[in-house]
Amino acid sequence: DTEVTQTPKHLVMGMTNKKSLKCEQHMGHRAMYWYKQKAKKPPELMFVYSYEKLSINESVPSRFSPECPNSSLLNLHLHALQPEDSALYLCASSQVFPSGRASGVDTQYFGPGTRLTVL
Amino acid sequence: AQKITQTQPGMFVQEKEAVTLDCTYDTSDQSYGLFWYKQPSSGEMIFLIYQGSYDEQNATEGRYSLNFQKARKSANLVISASQLGDSAMYFCAMREGLTGGGNKLTFGTGTQLKVEL
ω before A8 within 30° of 0 (cis)? Predict the structure, then answer.
């Protein structure tokens, strides 16, 4: 059973709507991630938060706005999306491990995802 | 830059048989980590197994084992005694540490495995 939860499971929205995706983890992790995944493709990293601070933004359009209110929660605010933004949105979390010798300590654990459809 | 290559878009295996999913990688780092994830049609990415570049033994987790050949830059996943529930997309990924904390995964294109009766 995953300890990363995401709500809602499914979301249908119009191009003028404002909605939010929510992610919560209870593993004490201090890094959290948002990914976008199109059908039959690997996930694409969107944002990385480390200790509640945004550390990576992979040139994501401003219509996607992440927020990390505390160490357990990660939100993704959506506004004025386009139909091509329809995808599976995955959240993940991991421990923070210093760069250097690689370790499995900072394995990313994923939530079940939110399937987003933009009409 | 890191690169992961999975050359098998689709694989079929009979139930109870073993199957090997191929993964090759390219990196200039001396220290790196490799992961395998399973993604059923429901969408969740499930972590299966991890192999560190300095690990002396091949990783094993239950029915999953990793055939790590460092000189050949390959990290193949072996699933023994396949079950119908193993039918899913499988992704190989490589970890890159981030200066600000956390890590970045580079994924391969995935292999769709179907287990048949």
Answer: yes
Q: What is the pLDDT of residue B98?
A: 83
Q: How far, rounded to the nearest angstrom, does the alpha carbon of residue B51 sit from its chain's CA centroid?
A: 9
Number of Cβ pairs closer than 8 Å across A and B? Answer: 97
Q: Is pLDDT above 70 for A19?
A: yes
Query: Count of residues for chain A?
Result: 119
Using one digit for the tens of pLDDT, what is the confidence trace for A59-95? Answer: 999 999 999 999 999 999 999 999 999 999 999 999 9
Express as a percent the part of chain A with pLDDT over 90: 89
Burial class (CB in 10 A: 0-12, 13-18, 19+), A26: exposed
From chain A, the residues in CB contact with B105 under 8 A are 43, 45, 108
What burial class does residue A70 get, using C-beta atoms within 10 Å of its C-beta: 0-12 exposed, 13-18 middle, 19+ buried? exposed
**How confident is the model over B36-59, as a mean pLDDT?**
95
For residue B71, give how far its alpha carbon lies from the nearest alpha carbon of chain A (Å): 18
Q: What values do phi and psi take at B114, rounded to 5?
A: -125, 125
Mutate to test the interface with B, among A29, A48, A74 (most CBs of B within 10 A): A48
